[in-house]
Amino acid sequence: MELRQLRTFEAVVRHGTVTDAANVLDQAPSTVSEQIRHLERSLGVALFERTARGMRPTEQGEVLLRWSRSILDQAEQARREVTGRGRAVRLGALETIVATYVPRVLARVAGRRPDITVDVRSATSRDTLLAEVTAGQLEAALLLDTGDALGDLGFPLPAAPLTFLDLDPVPLVLVAAPDHRLRDRHHLGPQDLTGEKLLVNVPNCSFRMAADKLLGPGPQRIQAGGVAVMRAWVEQGLGISLLPRFAVSAALESGTLSGLDFAAPDLSLRLIWRSDREDLPGLRDVLYAAGA
């Protein structure tokens, strides 16, 4: 049983087909298939059920999956200690918060544990972060959420023992053009926004999900794009938008945007990880430092 075979095995489990796993691994499908066959022969069991819809791990495959991540983690840690590179923790984060919030987390860790390296990997999709934490490709990830339970914002969770720690509030503000009709109205509620054009991103965007929960069905959704696009469109009077304060504070100060008097609860900057991997070298130290 070789480490490269275990990495290939995990990729096939994660992506469901040899072709998709080969694309991710930058290998030929025939190479992936051969590694899986070698692994099965060495163990004397079938690790996958081959179906027309893809490959699913057998009961024995599920057992190996639980072991493979631990083996690969230990091999990586051994390599780092032997080569003198020290401990490293892979941290994923949404692109929207990498520039603003991740440096704060890194500064906390560096101040308390300068011996630990944090490798930051940005992602455009929350689903990608959740999948990579579940699969052990990331030790932890930073995303946006709300409420007392993981996923209260409205996104689905993978079948994994995920837990979390809330680090910082992420304030939201409902913004409009300076001459908007609701600029001088006080204590706005969802009923006051009926018929307004609400600029949004894709349905799984954190700020879109927050808007859907807070503003109700009254506003007309217009899909614009990312935060920068929505901000620019609001400035040009094309609609209103619920955006993070860090992305619009300069525009609010300069007067190119107005903040409407709508009480929007903060989102939470949430650090997530697998509870069954807390004993990985360096991870618990990073969790303590980040939450300090």
TrEMBL record:
Entry keyword set: DNA-binding, Transcription, Transcription regulation
All copies of domain HTH lysR-type, residue ranges: 1-58
Pfam families on file: HTH_1 (PF00126), LysR_substrate (PF03466)
Keyword Protein transport in annotation: no
InterPro entries in the record: LysR_HTH_N, LysR_subst-bd, WH-like_DNA-bd_sf, WH_DNA-bd_sf
Domain of life: Bacteria
GO molecular function list: DNA-binding transcription factor activity; transcription cis-regulatory region binding
Range of residues in the leader sequence: none
Residues annotated as transmembrane: none
PANTHER family linked: HTH-TYPE TRANSCRIPTIONAL REGULATOR (PTHR30126), HTH-TYPE TRANSCRIPTIONAL REGULATOR GLTR (PTHR30126:SF40)
Family per record: Belongs to the LysR transcriptional regulatory family.
Name of the protein this chain belongs to: LysR family transcriptional regulator
Species assigned in the record: Planotetraspora mira
